[in-house]
Design brief:
With about 325 residues, the chain is an alpha+beta fold. The protein folds into two domains: about 5-195, Fructose-1,6-Bisphosphatase, subunit A, domain 1 (Fructose-1,6-Bisphosphatase, Chain A, domain 1, 2-Layer Sandwich); about 205-335, D-Maltodextrin-Binding Protein, domain 2. It contains eight helices and 17 strands. The chain has helices at about 5-15, 25-45, 70-80, 220-230, 250-260, 270, 280-295, 325-335; strands at about 55-60, 65, 85-90, 100, 110-120, 130-135, 160-165, 170-175, 180-185, 190-195, 205-210, 240, 260-265, 280, 300, 315-320, 320-325. Helix 1 (about 5-15) packs antiparallel against helix 2 and helix 2 (about 25-45) runs antiparallel to helix 3 (about 70-80). It is globular. The protein binds 2,5-anhydro-1,6-di-O-phosphono-D-mannitol (AHM) and magnesium ion (MG). Magnesium ion binds near residues 93, 115, 118 and 284.
Amino acid sequence: MVQRTSLLKFIIEEQRHHPHATGEFTGLLTDVVTACKKISSLTSCGGLAEQAMGTAGSENVQGETQKKLDILSNEIFIESTEWSGNLAGMASEEMDDCYPVPSQYPRGKYLITFDPLDGSSNIDINVSVGTIFSIMVAPEGTDTVVNEDFLQPGARQVCAGYCLYGTSTMMVLTTGRGVNGFTLDRSTGDFLLTHPMMEIPADTNEYSINQSNHRHWEPAVQRYIDECLQGADGPLGKNYNMRWIASMVADVHRLLCRGGVFMYPMDAKLQAKGQNGKLRLLYEANPMSFVVEQAQGLASTGRQRIMEVQPEELHQRVPVIMGSRNEVERILGYHS
Ligand code: AHM
Ligand code: MG
């Protein structure tokens, strides 16, 4: 039988590369893993968990309808991570403001931002969803955490990753030393290393975009997709394939496994609503950019490296273009 490294063993071995590590980070990551296992168990019940299905009758701060599972997953994430003394505070797509760790618990040095259940429009139809998270260090000298403490560029993340609730449950993460993927073994409850040092091929012939927004896109994106559609007869000289799951975790996971470009670019429809993109910088774009860059890919707004964007507010949105290096470079060339 193949002997696979467990995620816990992997994290502890990683810790040994940092001689001054106190174990706080390892503790935090262990709590994140627990949260994701619980959310995995909940989402896999599907229609059997009737009390968890459907809309919650509320909207988040961004005016989007919240599903009951969005709120339950958010609660699970908080309960699993707030108590152990590793965190100073958290911020979530599903909460208006940040959540400082309650005073009855010791305060740690880390901050975490997360989207507890990304792609939740897919819940009711039994299609893959996921959790995305990003860990950074709280600014020194802060007592009670405030929203401004989270406004750090993605380049300052110390760890980021996602958990994909698909045909199998997978945790994929980076601490800045490559990207590793672990699959949940349901018989033991362990995540085991199945995808070591994931690398995105530099070239691809697969793209992922909500093509129904074509008429609203900027000319650079329209040009690129039009050229893909021309296939071998057009300037790109090869045939392309298109995939759109409408679940960022699943769409980005695919490009991590076999290459591709994922885009949620700026468009006139979003602009008319006063939005600078669809996806959120702190909960979606930054963590996924860290993972993609660590797997040799690129992640950009079209005009700037996503991880260099200075966040100005907690729920800020950005255009996202990420994936196979050569293809993303081509699209960036069209923007300039
Ligand atoms: P969510 O965080 O509310 O689930 O929204 C983010 C999701 C992404 O997972 C996905 O890429 C995108 O929204 C899908 O958008 P669309 O509905 O335009 O296809
Ligand atoms: Mg989301």
